[in-house]
Amino acid sequence: MSELLHNCLGGRWVAGRGAGTALLDPVLGTELVRVDAAGLDLPAGFAYARDRGGAALRALTYRQRGAMLRAALEVLQAHRDAYFEIATANSGTVKNDSAVDIDGAIYTLSTYAKLAASLPDARFLVDGEDASLAKDGTFLARHVQTPVRGLALFINAFNFPAWGLWEKAAPALLSGVPVVVKPATATAWLTQRMVKDVVDAGVLPPGALNVVCGRSAGLLDALQPMDVLSFTGSAATAATIRSHAAVARDSVRVNIEADSVNAALLLPGEAPGSAAFDALVKEVAREMTVKSGQKCTAIRRVFVPEPLFDAVAEALSARLAKATVGNPRSEAVRMGALVSRAQLTAVREGLATLKSVTKVLHDGDRHALVDADPAVACIVGPTLLGACDADGAAQVHDLEVFGPVATLMPYRDTAHALQLVGRGQGSLVASLYGCDHAALGAAALALAEGHGRVHVVSPEAAVSHTGHGNVMPQSLHGGPGRAGGGEELGGLRALNFYHRRAAVQASPAVLAALG
Amino acid sequence: MSELLHNCLGGRWVAGRGAGTALLDPVLGTELVRVDAAGLDLPAGFAYARDRGGAALRALTYRQRGAMLRAALEVLQAHRDAYFEIATANSGTVKNDSAVDIDGAIYTLSTYAKLAASLPDARFLVDGEDASLAKDGTFLARHVQTPVRGLALFINAFNFPAWGLWEKAAPALLSGVPVVVKPATATAWLTQRMVKDVVDAGVLPPGALNVVCGRSAGLLDALQPMDVLSFTGSAATAATIRSHAAVARDSVRVNIEADSVNAALLLPGEAPGSAAFDALVKEVAREMTVKSGQKCTAIRRVFVPEPLFDAVAEALSARLAKATVGNPRSEAVRMGALVSRAQLTAVREGLATLKSVTKVLHDGDRHALVDADPAVACIVGPTLLGACDADGAAQVHDLEVFGPVATLMPYRDTAHALQLVGRGQGSLVASLYGCDHAALGAAALALAEGHGRVHVVSPEAAVSHTGHGNVMPQSLHGGPGRAGGGEELGGLRALNFYHRRAAVQASPAVLAALG
């Protein structure tokens, strides 16, 4: 039997009492490690996190916590090679795709360590200007933000075991809030290892960072009203979480990032081969293949002017045809595996649904697997679908197929295009391609309300833009409606979730004594 | 039969098809008017609000919407006398208590009309500074806030039919978001009349302000993912709302203000008769009797140093004994009715529960009713309870009795007092009384995390302070945990709920074209 990974809770490393769930190599099918959370004393462990970890974190200033993040960053950098090895084995990703997760995590943590320098050397934040409540100046309202006194529970997704931990933990720890992370079981290894390295290095107070691997049973029951909960995953699980007593009855603050049928839109007025045309084709192909399309921000729907449909279909198919797919350990391979048999099945089922209302423009099955056994490896080639009747293809706007799959659709005019993008019912990100700055600005504003992020690629930014699907810590990550309604990152905006805002109404002398 | 009030939905006034529910005078028991929402086409009415009202509001700038609020304000001011008449009849409140609701509404609306001047003459807001995403300066992230494209549904409480409408509608309309208000049935008349006056005056675009009176059945089912929902009421109903598919599955953004067991705390070091001692006694007595204690912000728990328990009990009881209770039409009466028989029953039941763990320090039954029939009128006198074992009296910390009832409790030291306040599990407001500025500041910071507002009364603010329970539009209103986790008001912070934040990532030329 493989190694049983321990959980970190209550200030110690503790093994689950069950047989454990095996984590597999999605390319080779071999067992790697096991995880188990059976028999953990969650209430006691959570209390330790709140009372020991939380108290120790809150005793530090923002600047001191920034230094703590920097120390954690150095630990991660020192073990970076090991993380890539785990990613190759457990996520089946090529090195560039592992980097999106691992180096993305390191960059995000580094960004928050730096942002700490812009915060006061204090233990709470002042929010905005004082407001006068008395004409004689003897009574004022000051708004303050103080760290949440509970813990932050993260229930995370399988596709970003590294970044998914640190994009949440960095702002939480900087805010002074202890963390319990429950990684998705399929790829829990990398999350667990990163927590282990940082905890064992002793750079955080005991109880500040905890990890529970395996089943999530009981985690929500152990929450208390002052805790916060951040969930990344399916809309179905999100609905269950929102209905749990901890959230519905005890008002545990919750942040949710769920499904998203993100769009890319080539604005009117472009000819085949124009800079904007080429930028769209390049970005769509990249988004479809990076991490085998297993990014919540990946492009799922591509809208182009009707007259350009065939030209885009041809250019995209040609580009996709060059993708070498297979074992990520092979030098020739550019796109690796899906994360598990379950995901392979889900992608195939989703593809079948979409195929019922689309035609196949580029068939993923045309890609022979390099150095991988199709009977074992969880690998599919990239598939481009096309729906000439964009209005009628309801499933394309509703179903997020979490793999290397996108659907191309034609639109009549900009109003039609914007209306079609809106059929996603709220998404994480939309990208725009064009060269008319006024038209791009107007379309970006029109899409802003339905998206957490609008990414605009105009010719002058064709090289420097950061990518449709890359989540930059400086920008908001989240989206309304189907995307779950959450807000993460966005620089210091991320700290809001881990603070409570309160108005202190008092005389100037009392406000001065707040410190 | 009394008049059947019409609903405003879909751009017209429409009667419900049912027999209606009668609204009663809680002092005289007479029927006043009826409300009914049966047979309304909610989906069509909501669509009209979104598509007509919302589009017209979004076409205006913030400054233009501010002028619109000012016009609505003038309508309310012109009809102010009629509102007081309705409040006397339907809420059973004395004039000063009606003013808390009606003049509170007018002041809040006026505050937002004025705040509009500090907003740009534009249709969206820029949030913070741009962040650089490329070293060569060709790609940046700018965060914008654009108005929600859906509607704002308000499900409101019976105790503030006027203020409860406008404290939400003012920031919603200023944000450019159409409103549907569902007032609590018992006191729906005043809400309906205010909407009627403003709508009939034609100062708002058609569909911008709507009212549905009667049962709330079907309202949540008519919501769509881009709508927002603000609820004020019981924690039990709040849990039902959070579990509804619109919220749990479609991520309708929700703001909840629920139960709150607010505290007042006299800090150590005070002698009987000191300025802080007197301020506490005066404020507790006022909070218990204003609106017969039917304020979500009213003081329910009073903590004083052990040696002062008897002195505070005596001073408070003496003050409460002077309260004249009865028919609000009588000149001599200072405290009027509860809002309904149902509330009378709930208060009596709550009192019975609290009495099982407390002793009665001042008995409300000692107050003879002035000019009111005890068999008909929904009136109770103010009751002060005492619990010498503050730690053991669990019900006192958990149960919000929504009437003129508070419980006095002794504490050993400041740490004990803060811990007891925290037993409320999150409250709207706590107030502090003392003269040591450093001690007041430290206690205010310690309480900030568990409260939406901390109100500090020191001697220099004894006259100018705005009152423990008065919600000033400049200050945040809401609270974590049991209080529902919501955020309302707080000046321009209130606009956040009615906007979506998005990052626009683009070149400087495209960002310049955003306008």
Structure report:
The structure is a homodimer of 515-residue chains. Chain A has 515 residues and is an alpha/beta fold. Chain A is built from 15 helices and 22 strands. The first copy, chain A, has helices at residues 42-58, 62-78, 80-91, 95-115, 163-175, 188-200, 235-243, 245-248, 275-289, 309-321, 341-355, 394-398, 414-422, 437-448, 508-512, and strands spanning 3-4, 7-9, 12-14, 21-24, 31-35, 125-132, 140-147, 152-155, 179-182, 209-211, 228-232, 253-257, 262-266, 299-305, 359-362, 383-386, 405-411, 427-433, 451-457, 476-477, 488-489, 499-506. In chain A, the strands form six sheets. A seven-stranded mixed sheet of chain A has the order 15-16-17-14-13-18-19, sandwiched between helices. Chain A has a five-stranded parallel sheet with strand order 10-9-8-11-12, sandwiched between helices. In chain A, a hairpin with a 6-residue loop joins strand 4 (21-24) and strand 5 (31-35). Chain A is globular, with a radius of gyration of 24 Å. The mean pLDDT of chain A is 97. The interface between A and B is large, with 87 and 88 residues.
